[in-house]
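Q: Fold this one first, please.
A: Sequence and structure below.
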Amino acid sequence: MTGDHRKVVEDPDIDALLVLTPDHTHADLACAALRTGKSVLVEKPLDISVERCDTILRTAYETGSRLYVGHNMRHMPVVRLMRDLVERGTIGTVKTVWIRHFVGYGGDWYFKDWHAERARTTGLLLQKAAHDIDVLHWLAGGYARDVQAMGDLMVYGDNPHRRAAGEPKADDWYTKDGHWPPHTQRALNPVIDIEDVSLLNMRLDNGVLAAYQQCHFTPDYWRNYTVIGDAGRLENFGDGPGSRVKVWNARRSHFRDEPDEIHEVPPARDDSGHGGADPLLMDEFLRFAREGGPTDTSPVAARMAVAAGYEATMSLRDGGTPRRVEAPDPDLVAYFAGGQPRRPSAPGPTAERRS
């Protein structure tokens, strides 16, 4: 046990590291570890700006150290099920995706610590939505190119019950009981300058249109995905084990509660977190750290989730002005798509261009 990250980063007996620190510290810590040759898992989001994400990717490229990003929802049974249905052509070619994220514990988990501060997260349309934007990209087969967003701090900004600066969080801050409705919250973070509700519209680089909505003062906590193709629609009802994904694709009709197909979400492995995704993510990272090879998560996709969330947040705070999402360096895209094959002695893309 140590409070000095340098002792861990520089320890020659450590082969792999997990960066699970506050978001705004990811780039500095990840790059320091990558430069020592260690394999690194960075918790999502990759960082809080596009530039800092690109710094991590470029450092991995230049050092040849293996980089993995903790987008565990790519291993969630409900997401895997929907992805499989899309890949099988159950609804034809995907044309539009709608996501609603109801965050029932938002006041407990996101407005009582550093998550509530722009300086450490940019905002929840990046920090929290990075999960769903990544899933949206995966289901739709493309990356956000144009974004436009609106949002506000509608509930928690008016709550005067804040902790004093430096005062620790209350013992019951992480709870699934009590603290309802939102105005009964106490001991909120001293600084709250991020939005608690947001609406995002996107056009992807493959033409797919998408929408994402996030609210932190709902009584329920789950995600609802609707994916519409040119030959059907699928939608999940619940997002954990025992939930269902329904498909309508056989005929036109008025409202039908009963779909044409019902697919049960598989049970979780050992009742583990995120519907069984967490141990699967760790299994993949450990295999990747030892052996390399392809992974279901993607550093480039993680960067694109941050880029979409960042530009959307800038749009939101600029009156909903449309913003263009910057594409990543093609050299980096090719490198990570190829399974990160470079070794430490190889020069990076910048050096290659100068030669």
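Q: Good. Now the second chain.
A: Here it is, same layout.
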Amino acid sequence: MPTTGPSRTAVEIASQPACWREAADTLPRHRAALPVRGERVAVVGCGTSWFVAQAYAQLRESGGHGETDAFAASEFPLGRDYDRILAITRSGTTTEVLDLLAKVRGTAVTGALTADPATPVMTAADAVAVLDFADEESVVQTRFATTALALLRAHLEAEDALPAGVRTVAQAAEDAERAVAEPLADAVTDAEQFTFLGTGWTYGLALEAGLKMREAAGAWTEAYPAMEYRHGPISITGPGRVAWVFGPVPAGLADDVARVGGTLVADSDSDADSGAGPGSGSGPGSGADGSDPSTSAALDPLADLVRAQRLAVLLAEAQGQDPDRPRNLTRSVVLSVPAGEDA
């Protein structure tokens, strides 16, 4: 549809590098809501926030900060002991999150990350980190989610618990500047299907990339752990279809994508010192910006997610859809009865 300028969603996507830097700069005032080293922690959320929770749980535990699980708020195992439950909720009004915080009150310390201080989560949790500078007008969530993860990464970095090979937030923000500016290649903008893959903490990013493409553009997307790709998902890959890997590419996967005629996108890596994209020297396709992944500098995987967000907006607009008004979605899911009860 005709527009007079970029969508709100596109503007918010482009603002992410600045938001990540502000998250790192404001870390000291948010510490009360964040896990303490050694605590047994459960991180919960819904939709995008659940995928952020999965990514953070992997980062925290693999960095030695403490045992960490992630759950959709509606699937939290009541009765399991945790020292802290950390909820991620952009709106601060999501029914399942508020319901869970009420149920666990007094059994564990509770914290929350939110974008809106004028919402019920402010009293539902023991401590709240308000990232109002990353709040969004868009229904489709982009910058709040990545900024929440940037804050959590900055906290691990400050506690010397960032896993080996994971970039600092400052480095990730620099990469995100590139991800915002560089054009996307025809190989991805013209594709009909996308399979997003990740390993460890980047599996949460793969899940989020798939969700973003479905939300904004109604695209045909799937997401899996990278090593699961050959256990069935490869059957959908072929000409005009993309396998997009966040982080390291498992040995032999690039050859498998080439064999079935698909396009490999492998523009990111967790190694801060890497000077070339993962899968160097192999792979049938180009990076998402049209570059050769064997020669281009690898992005931080969170910055690579920014490219997937941009692609979702581009595809939506190419189909005549408004990315600011996605089908069947609202900014927050507020149920008429508490989660888990019958209507």
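Q: Anything worth noting on the second one?
A: Residues 301-318 form the longest helix (18 residues).
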